[in-house]
Write a structure and sequence with these properties.
With 91 residues, the protein is an alpha+beta fold. It has 3 helices and 3 strands, in the order αββαβα. Strands 2-1-3 form a 3-stranded antiparallel sheet. The relative contact order is 0.35. The model has no long low-confidence stretch (mean pLDDT 95).
Length: 91
Amino acid sequence: MGGQVTPNWNLNCDMPGMDELVIRVTVRLSADGDIIGSPRLQDTRSDPTWRAASEAMLRALRATSPFTVPAGFQAQEVPFRFETARQCGGR
């Protein structure tokens, strides 16, 4: 499902350190693929680069909802792991 999010994840790859981050977030999805409640960021940091990347990730998750889920999908928490190096690669 992460592949559904990355097209909506807009990063400022010119920020120092932006290509070195891993953003982990847990999202509760309904059986229809809608986000339930608020996504929860893991391993939070206070530096500006991490904050910018994680805030962009939360916007991307909201923009992606509802997710395309397989038939028979049950409401559940879904962990996501996004690497900024992959998103910024080639920029």
